Amino acid sequence: MLQLLSPGLVAYILGLTALLGLVMGSFLHCWAYRFARAQSAVRGRSSCPACGKVLGPLELIPVFSYFYQRSRCRGCGAGLSLRYPIAELLCGAYFVSVVWHFGVSPEALKYLIAGSLLFCIAWVDWDVHWIPDRLLAGIILNFVLFTAFQGGDPIKNLLTGLLGGLSVSLPLFILVLIMDRLLGRASMGGGDIKLLFAVGLYFSWQANLLLILAACVLGIVLSPMLRKKSPDSEDGEAFPFGPAIIAAYWFVLLWSEPLLNWYRSFL
Length: 267
Description:
Layout: H1 7-36, H2 64-68, H3 83-102, H4 106-128, H5 133-149, H6 154-183, H7 190-200, H8 205-226, E1 228-229, E2 237-238, H9 242-264
Antiparallel strand pairs: 1-2
Helix pairs in contact: 1-3, 1-4, 3-4, 4-5, 4-9, 5-6, 5-7, 6-7, 6-8, 7-9, 8-9
C-alpha cells in the first residue's frame, strides 16, 4: 500500500499516475469518438472535427490545450466541447484512485486496464447508444488472464467471478424478457445486461447488488444529461444506461468493502 511509503515517493508515484491517466484519457476519448463512427483509432492524426485541421503538439496536451486554445479551434474558430478536459480529468482521477487504493501492484494494473476499456465504452454508449461487444470481450479476457495468474486456485477464482457476473445480470435478463413480453417492446438494451455481467466478474455477489443499486441512483441523477432524442425510441428519447453502470463500477471498486463491512456490523 502507498500509505507505507514516504510522502515524497507517494507524491512522485501519484504524479506519474495522474499524468498517465490524463494522457490515456485523451487517447481513450479519441478512440471512443472514432469507435462510435467506425473509424480507425490508430490511423490518421488527431484533427479538428469541424474543419479537419491536423492538431499540432501544443494542441494535444491534455487539459492544458483546451484552455490554451480558449476552447476554440485555432484553425476555424469552432468551439471545442468541454467534454475534452472533463474526460481527461476523469480518467486521470480514476488512475490516481486505483493506484492509491491498490498500490503499485498487479491488481492495480488489472483495474487500470478494465477501467480504460470501460471508460471507452461509456463515451461510445453516450454518443451512439451502443456497447461494443469487442470491448466487453476485452474486459472479460482481462479478468480471465489476471485471475489465472494471480495465485491460489484459478478454477475457484474463475467460478467466484462467474457467480459475481451472473448474480445481477442473469436475474435482470429474466426480468427484461418478462417485461419485453408484457410491454410488447424492448424494455432494456441487451448491451447493458452484458456490461453488467462483464463488470460483475470483478466483484462478489454482495458488491454486485450494491453496484446495481448505485447504478440506478446514478442513472436517475445523470438522466438529464444522458437522455437524448432518438428516432429509434417510441417516446422519442433514448437513455444510455452504460455510463451510470460504469460510474457505479468506480464507486463500488473503491467503497464496496467499507460499506459492506459497515452493513455487516448491524447483523
